[in-house]
Design brief:
238 residues, alpha+beta, two-stranded parallel sheet, 8 strands
Length: 238
């Protein structure tokens, strides 16, 4: 009998009821089959915890959650499943989706004869299930080391821009103000529009729509206001 513990950061995802329903079905089925026996479990538990600014709601199934969308103030959702076959055979799984990268994690604790193989097989299945729900919010929520570097440099960039304005050095002036704008845009984006894990709510849908309009507007401006202007001046002279 061996013990194996697996821990990893979850990918950034858009969490909705369909994803939670798929996780629930997969965990209940897979955890009942991974050991390769049909004996009844001594203890079989599954819980779903939804945390918002008011507190934490604990459910036995996503089907017990009545609203079509999550609260606008949802901060995290935790899925926990455990199955005890005997005093020696135990499998525990925990998925925690959170607005912060460091708090979004998957942990699997397995006590069995082939603990490593069972845990990695279950992890691979969970990754495949999460794949269609992944998003690009990880770009705005980098690892803690990168985040600390950006956080440390941000005040320097922001305060450097007015100083360069006084010196009136054009190239440095443009560079400093563009850098300052990017820093402010980065922090506003990650806090307001792009949390590491997003939860399907009315506010998140509205912000996603606004974000798409904003990004496509910038792309349209760059293409039609800059690239086409350069092409026109190059070939037509005006």
């Amino acid at each position: 009998m061996t013990e194996f513990r697996l821990e990893m950061i979850l990918p950034s995802c858009c969490v909705d009821k369909d994803l939670l329903r798929g996780l629930e079905d997969y965990l209940k089925t897979a955890m009942g089959n991974l050991y390769g026996n049909q004996q009844e479990a001594f203890r079989d538990e599954y819980t779903l915890s939804i945390t918002d600014s008011l507190g934490t709601e604990v459910l036995k199934s996503i089907s017990d959650f009545g609203p079509a969308l999550f609260s606008d103030r949802t901060q995290g959702i935790t899925v926990e499943a455990s199955r005890l076959y005997s005093k020696q055979e135990l499998l525990m799984v925990r998925l925690r989706f959170h607005r912060r990268r460091a708090s979004s994690e998957l942990s699997i604790n397995c006590h069995a004869r082939n603990a490593r193989e069972l845990a990695t097989a279950l992890c691979d299945g969970l990754k495949r299930l999460l794949e269609p729900h992944r998003n690009f919010n990880w770009f705005y929520n980098p690892p803690i080391v990168v985040e600390l570097i950006v956080f440390s440099l941000s005040p320097l960039v922001v305060f450097f821009s007015p100083a360069m304005t006084l010196r009136s050095q054009n190239i440095w002036l443009i560079t400093s103000w563009v850098s300052a704008g990017l820093v402010v845009f980065y922090w506003v984006s990650r806090i307001v529009f792009k949390p590491y894990s997003s939860f399907d709510s009315r506010t998140s849908r509205t912000r996603s729509t606004l974000w798409n309009w904003f990004i496509y507007g910038i792309i349209g401006f760059l293409i039609f206001g800059t690239v086409f202007t350069m092409v026109r001046m190059r070939f037509f002279g005006f």
